[in-house]
């Protein structure tokens, strides 16, 4: 049961919008998995038995529409896997402060507050969007009894135009959900979780409300 629970290691990702370096395409990344049009890379993280992940996949929707999905933090609990609660604490022109609680059901809930930094810039065929996040627990609700407080969660979404009505999405993440277990299982389950994350975004972006913003 605990081993299954390791899947929550990817869930900080559902901040979806979530402070690591901007994803690069060099370094010591190795292909870990290819499934459903998503290539997942991994590499060791200094000082940890857990790995960093980067996933690259195409989404069949305009980049602005995909960004609208990532930006719809208040709706995460309705379409992001395992997300029980997600609310915006503060929103500025270039950042979002958000509290999130995930509930995998087979272990106690996990929660965290994240600050998501946002920026965009012109590229060929439109705009590119970058959302990067890091923990900001001191600016969110106090820890709750029975809910594990995640303190390590760094990641990003990079969205780039990839032709007419298509987006190249790059998602990166390093997190530690505090579950004790074999590292290779935690890393394998994280790969599966990232695939589910892409599937959720691909499905949600079909909602017409994201096309009209």
Question: What's the quick description here?
Answer:
It is built from 4 helices and 10 strands; from the N terminus they run H-E-E-E-H-H-E-E-E-E-E-E-E-H. It has 213 residues and is of the alpha+beta class.
Characteristics of this structure?
40% strand, ten-stranded mixed beta sheet, alpha+beta, globular, 213 residues, 18% helix
- The rounded distance between the terminal residues' Cα atoms is 42 Å
- The helix-strand sequence is HEEEHHEEEEEEEH
Indicate the overall shape. globular
Summed up, the helix count is 4
Rg result? 16 Å
In terms of DSSP E residues, the strand content is 35-45%
Mean pLDDT: 85
Strand element count: 10
Main sheet characteristics:
10 strands, mixed
Give the low-pLDDT segments: 1-26
Helix content: 10-25%
Q: Quickly give the structural class.
A: alpha+beta
């Amino acid at each position: 049961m605990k081993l299954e629970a390791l899947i929550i290691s990817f869930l900080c990702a559902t901040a979806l919008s979530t402070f690591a370096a901007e994803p690069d395409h060099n370094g010591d990344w190795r292909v870990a998995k290819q499934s459903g049009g998503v290539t997942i890379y991994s590499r060791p993280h200094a000082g940890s038995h857990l790995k960093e992940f980067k996933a690259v996949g195409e989404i069949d929707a305009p980049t602005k529409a995909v960004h609208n999905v990532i930006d719809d933090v208040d709706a995460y609990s309705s379409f992001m896997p395992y997300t029980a609660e997600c609310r915006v604490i503060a929103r500025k022109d270039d950042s979002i402060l958000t509290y999130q609680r995930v509930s995998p059901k087979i272990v106690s809930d996990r929660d965290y507050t994240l600050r998501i930094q946002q920026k965009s810039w012109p590229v060929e065929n439109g705009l590119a969007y970058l959302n990067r996040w890091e923990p900001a627990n001191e600016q969110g609700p106090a820890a709750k009894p029975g809910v594990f407080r995640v303190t390590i969660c760094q990641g990003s979404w990079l969205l780039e135009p990839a032709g007419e009505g298509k987006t190249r999405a790059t998602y990166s993440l390093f997190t530690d959900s505090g579950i004790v277990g074999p590292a290779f299982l935690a890393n394998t389950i994280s790969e599966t979780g990232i695939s589910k994350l892409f599937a959720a975004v691909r499905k949600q972006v079909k909602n017409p409300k994201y096309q009209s913003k």
